[in-house]
Amino acid sequence: MKLSRRALGVAAAGTLVSTAGCVGFVTGDDSLRFAADRAVVDDEALSETGYSEYRIEEQTITESVTVAGTTREVDARNVLAEYQKGIDAGDLGSARSATFAAFATPQVDLLWRTFNPVGEMDNREIAEEFTSGYEGVEIDEETDRTTLSVLGDDVDVSAYEAEAYLESELTEVRLHIGTAEAEQDFVVLVGMYPRLVDESEEIHRLAESIYQ
């Protein structure tokens, strides 16, 4: 199951202005282009869990940002690293896959205020954003929460049960969602797989192996 392009736009609204770019923002001397460092899973974790790289994709979003009465165009580059694993689903076959993704988006503050909405979103809000591109997704209440160490940050990763259309069939799935605060980025972690298997340990292993 491939994460939708809607998911790639989760951090689109009013994303980035840096403290270092304050003067440039007002005077127009700064190009106001910001880029996240890609966050990827290490090879050892991929080998241990059976996942493989599916794609690493960049998306640049341009937004108008207004600060102190001045409006400028700001370019923000996000990076999605996605990994997949074939799942033996019994009578349903093995084509269905488990997915793990790390979505890096620049974390930038101006005058003690963040302009990236990801920093203000809770896990459920992010889960809803990342599944909004799938037809008929319904997310139930949080079923579990685990604290993981990701990029030096203690991250609360929530698990949700949900229903989603996968390969044209309504399927019960489990979502794992969390956000790490890296040095200059937010890194959103997303795991999704059919509920008839349990990939939670594998998802946690992948998450804790992420590096930039």
Textual characterization of the structure:
This protein is α+β, with helices and mostly antiparallel strands and 212 residues long. The chain has one domain. Helix content is 17%, strand content 47%. The protein has five helices and ten strands; from the N terminus they run H-H-E-H-E-E-E-E-E-H-E-E-E-E-H. The protein has helices spanning 5-8, 22-27, 43-49, 123-131, 200-208, and strands at 33-35, 52-67, 70-86, 97-106, 109-110, 113-114, 138-150, 153-166, 169-181, 185-194. The strands form two sheets. Strands 1, 2, 3, 4, 7, 8, 9 and 10 form an eight-stranded mixed sheet that branches. Helix 3 (43-49) packs antiparallel against helix 5 (200-208). The longest helix is centred in the middle third of the chain and has 9 residues, at 123-131. It is globular.
Summarize, please.
This protein has 212 residues and is α+β, with helices and mostly antiparallel strands. The chain contains five helices and ten strands.
Task: Describe the secondary structure blueprint for this structure.
Layout lengths: L4 H4 L13 H6 L5 E3 L7 H7 L2 E16 L2 E17 L10 E10 L2 E2 L2 E2 L8 H9 L6 E13 L2 E14 L2 E13 L3 E10 L5 H9 L4
Parallel strand pairs: 1-3
Antiparallel strand pairs: 2-3, 3-4, 4-10, 5-6, 7-8, 8-9, 9-10
